[in-house]
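Hello,

Our lab assistant flagged a job as stuck in the queue for most of the afternoon. It eventually completed. Since we weren't sure the result was trustworthy after the delay, we are filing this so someone can double-check. Below is the sequence as submitted and the structure that was eventually returned. Let us know if re-running is recommended.
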Amino acid sequence: MTNGAFQRAVDALKRLPGIGQKTAQRMGFFLLKMPEAEALAIAQAIIDLKAKIHFCPTCQNITEAALCAICADPTRDRTRIVVVEEPSTLYAIERTGEYRGLYHVLLGAISPLDGVTPDDIKIKELLQRLHAEPIQEVIMATDPNIEGEATALYLTRLIKPLGCKVTRLAYGIPVGIDLEYADEVTLIKSLEGRRDL
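-- returned structure --
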């Protein structure tokens, strides 16, 4: 299809994660059939997102204010920081309602194959916080994949000499699953993360 405006929209939509050619075309046709006011509202929401949202200068979470709501909250435990790769992980942890400390968002993970080095993510900012704030524990909540593990190990080597306790989220069996259906890596991580009853 060589229709200029339509193809430009499809090409733009394909840049979104998880969107291939067919999905981008379906979305393009959907947007064409949508009432103009709704399509313009979507366009305005994207413009507002880029214009009004920035990263918190302290933790790198997204915010419209000078500081994100978590960093600005004086009731948070300021002795613990959970380190996550992306703001979406921060929000997943927040939804549990169980953690009341601070966060640090790396905005990525070390991945030499993708050309992402420690200088490309927010490690320097984390180390500055650890020197400036009374942090006693750093909880690694990077993804349980090769990049996340490499990032957690790299950070641990940098943080331990500072005198902070470094812990890692336990990974294991989800609630409600039969053990026979769990994969080997999940079972190994479950055994490694076991605790006393």
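-- support follow-up --
The delay was a queue issue, not a problem with the job. The result is valid. The chain has two domains: 4-52, 62-178+184-190. The mean pLDDT is 91.
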